[in-house]
Every structure is written in C-alpha cells, then in structure tokens.
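Objective 1.3, modelling of assemblies. Example input:
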Amino acid sequence: MKKAVFLFFIALAGQASSAFAASVVPDGLFDYRAVLSSDIFTKDEMELLYSSGAVTSDEIAREFLWTQLLAMPSEKRPKVGLVLSGGGARGFAHVGVLDVLRVNGFPVDMIAGTSMGAVVGSMYAAGMPIKTLWQIGNKATLDIASDDMNTFGIIRLLTTETLFSSQRMGAFLNEKIGEKNFSDLKIPFACVAMDIKTGERVVFTDGDVGLAVRASMNLPGVFKPVEYRHRYLVDGGVADNAPVDVARDMGADWVFTSLIRTNYTRTSFGSIYSYLMQALDIRGHMLVDESLKNSNFILVPQLGEVGFLDFSKATRAGQLGLEEAFRNIDAAKDSLMLFSMGPILNDYTRK
Amino acid sequence: MTIRANNLRFSVLLAALLAVTGCSANFYARKTMELQAAQDLYAAGDYINAAAGFDRIIATHPGAAVEARAYLGLGLSYERMNDYGDALINYRIAVQLYPKDISLMLSLASLYDRLKLFPQALEVYNKALDKDGDNLRANVGIAKTYMSLGYLGLAAQHYEAALENEENPDLRIRMAYIECLYRQRRYQEAEDAMAKALPLGQANAALWLLLAEIQYDRGFRNRAIDSIRRASEISGGRLDIEVRRALWLSTDGSLDDALALARRLRVEYPNDPLVCWTLGMVLLKADKPEEAGRYMKEAASYDARTFISSSAKKIIGYIADAKK
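Predicted structure (tokens):
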C-alpha cells in the first residue's frame, strides 16, 4: 500500500516536472514567444518599420514643381536670400538649418548674417562643407573667440574692466576658410556690425571677411571694439540682429530667415552680464520684429535648453535647428514655389 | 518502531514536497493554457476579449515571468485597438519585468516611434542595440526614427549596418536605404544600392518608381519615363504613378501621350483634385490655357488648405495675366 502511494507520488511528480519543463526555455526565462508566436509578435512592427507612409496628392504636386524650379537656370528663377540671425551658442542652430536646406537642394543665392549668423554664414559662403561645420560645433568652446576667455581673464575683466580681445576669432575664421575677401566667397555674403560711438549699423560687403565677422560678433562689454576705418565696431545684434533688408539690398527676391529667439521673460539673473545680455536681447527683439516683416519665410528653432553662452551645447543647438528645419521644409518650399510660380510656368510652358 | 516512524516521516515529507511541486507545475501549466487561449483570441482578431484574457492572467497570477507575457499581450491588444496610451503602459511594464529582453524593448521602441515620441524611441532602440549590436530590427528602427527626425545621414548609417549584418536582407530594407540616399541627393550611392536591389525586385512597382525618381532628378528623363512606365505596368496603373507619368511625359516625352493619359485619369477619377490639377498642367503645356484654367479652378475649389489648391490659384492668376 505504501509502495503504491509512493509510486503515485512519483508519477505525479514526473508529470508535473515535465509540464514545468515544457514552459521553461534553457536559459531559465519563460519563452513568451512560444505562446505569442513570432509572427504575431512582429507583424505590426515589421509593417511599421518598412512603411514609408502614403504619398499625398500635395507631395506629388510639390515634388513636380520643385523639380521644375531646381532644373531652371538660376538667372530665370527668383533670387533666394538667406538671413542668419545672431544668438551666441544658440546660433549653431543655423548649421542644422543649412544642412536641411542643402539636402533639399534649396537654392541659396546670397547670405546675410549677424554675429553667430555671420560666423556660420561666412564659413558656408566660403564653401565649407556642412560636415565640417558640424565638427566645429562639436569642438566649440567660448575661448574660440578670445585668448582671454579663461578664469584669469574673467577675473581681470570683472576687477579691472579690461575688455577681451577678439582677435582670436578672426584668426580662427582665417584658419578655417583661409584669409579671404568677400569677393573670394562662393556665395555672396554680407554681415552687420554696429559703431558703438554713433549707433550706426555698418554693413560689410567687401574687404577682409575675418575682420568683418569678428566685428559682427564682438559682444559689447566683453570684447574690445574692433577698430576699422575710424569706427569702433561691436556686435551687430544690437543694431540689426536679422538683416533682412541687407539681403534685399544684395538682390534677394525671396528671403528665408533663420531666427534665434530668446524667451527673455524667463531669464534668471545671476550676474551683471545677464542684465546686460537681457537689455541687448530686448532691444534686439524690438528691432527684429520690424525687420522680419520684410522676410518671406521665418524659421525659429526651438532651443529652450541651450543658453546664449552655452557653447558646450552647440551641437545640440545644431540638432534642434535641423529638426525644426526638417519639420518646416515643405512649408518653406511651398512658399518659394508659390512666389516663383510665374517663372516656373514660363519655363514649363516654353516650347 | 523507530524505523517505522522514520519511514512515516519520510513519506509525509516526500508527499508534501511532491504535492507542492505538482501544484506549482499545474499552476504554470494552467497559466500557459490561459495565455494560449488569450493569444488565440488575439490571433482571431478578438482584441477586446484577448485583452480581457491577458488582464485576468495578470490579476490572478502575479509573478514576473507570466506577467511579462501577459503585459506584452495586453500591449499588443491595446495597440490593435488603437488605444496607444494603454499599449504604451503595458509595454513599459513588460520591459521593466524583463529588462534583458530585446524583443520587448523593440516593441516598446516601435510604439514610441509610431506615436512620434522620437527621443524615447531612440533611447530604447539604442539600449537594444547595446545588447545586440547586429540586431536587424534595432538598426532598421533607429534608421526609420532618424529619417522621421531629419537625420538622414545617420539613418543611412543604420540602414547600412542592417544590410551588412543580414545575408539576405528584406528588399524593403534595401528600398528604405535607397530612398534615404535619394532624399539626401546621394545619387551615385543610391544607384549602386539600386543595382543590388533591382535583380531581387523586378516585379516591385515601388522599386521601379524609386529608380524612375532618381533618374528623373538626375536629368535622365527618357530613362525615367521608361522606368515609370514599368512601375505603372506592374502596379496595374496605380494612380500616384500614373499622375507622375503624365506630368513627366508633358515635360520630356510626348505631349500627346501626356494629354491622353491625363484625360483618361480624369475619366477614371472624376473627383480627384490631383488628377484635375495634373490635367490642368498638361493642358497648359499643350497651349490650351482656357481649358487648363477650368480644371485649375476646380482643383482650387477642393480644399483651400492644400498646396494643390493654393498652387492652382496661382496658376489661374498666371493664365489671367498671360491673357492680358
């Protein structure tokens, strides 16, 4: 009897352990894929992975007209001006914007920039590949602008009010693009500075590019004014942070503006420079709004997390610029195509 | 007496042990059956009852192993019912229960991607790739997410990784890679990749269309028209392909053929704004501005928010100016 009970338990245990083993995979984890078969598990995902989305009617019409526009000789289509505003480290967002414009074949016939917009714009106008611009963003630090950008220099600035020299910025630019005059650039370029003595806007369209860009990004109160033809030049952002009318003067029929905006209502004041920057920002905003009325398309990258002097996040600014431009590139294309409809149709209907 | 007592104690212990083991085994076997039943409901498309089944398993059988499967099933069911919020929650719980499992992570990442939560999708895809650097789905998933964000260069790198690691990669991965290169205007690389894909996709209309688009953009218009004709034949005259063919024929082929095709499409699709717009364009090219204007007016009337409508209005203005 006892033996029979014992055998019954053994049999029960055997059945139980085999059932248990069947639900366990060798590595000790339950294999849920045995229950939820792999086909069911991956079907939706695979469809999602491979689907590129349905093409809309608008995309077909847009694609056709865009191809016509790009195939036209440049002298027959409207001239496209690109305006790159100032914005400190946030201005590296322009690199991402330029990347998207380039990938889409967006024509850029001239560039006008202020401050960081002048730095990025001048390098692009000189023919620097976008890839190199991204690399510069990766390595960007504040001391690119000046040899004095170190602890000693900052203490000296605060205690003796000795302004930094921005010569290093000019040297940096010359090193990157070579010592070039405006006439040497592949794309016509202009940049804006301000005469600190007269408050006049100074537009550079000829001469030494390095010096002009240095003047355009020469932050007042931090860098010594750049002396040029009896003028004392500082950052153009104070006078004209988005020089749309400069692009117009250069001959642009249609203007695309990449604008770096700061939400100055959220500034936290930590130093005298934050007050100074705030004053410049507010002044810049007031003037920019007027200037922008003359722009056909305005792109404002959302750069919340990147600060004005946050050069360690320059690449992030570029990425945010790229994402914003990518989201809006169809709208920019539509705007340019609608503006260019006459020339496109003239070319299309040409026998 | 002592021996008998020891035997008795041994038998009682053995019985208790086996009873526990047996109960445990039955417990798991029952859960597996319940999971199977819920999965069957899912497979049959009864997502409501499948979700209820998975939910019941979670409620009655707590324990990480079974729960992970049930949470996954629940996530899948909710996703099928377009309840993405609940799907997301259940995938996330499943991943938390089995953080080592790549497939669970990929389900979660894929849903993030679908919901356009791209940074979250990238984070989870990259975690999956950290565990398995050659994982096809992780590479393709990252590539697709990068495409959505505009990082086309990075997307191409991950498509390349996916293609390198597969002996016979799915044609769709090759096509996605070619499209990625094409959108960056990396035409030569796109054509090289096309040369590898074309022998595998001779009967694939989308592939021929992609080839045609590359050729058209590069200025090889006659070749492009041949390729799009092939795409049209394979697809049985798919509308988006036929519309492009009509427009391309109007610029670089036979205008008569373009007009005949556009008119045929108009008969087949009398209420389609794109067809209307296309016929208007071809008529304009054929120097029939009045008729073109009529079709453009119709195209403009459909949906004022579309590019078709706004461009049609501009074209109407152009025709009116030309008339003056």
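Chain A touches chain B through 59 residues (CB under 8 Å).
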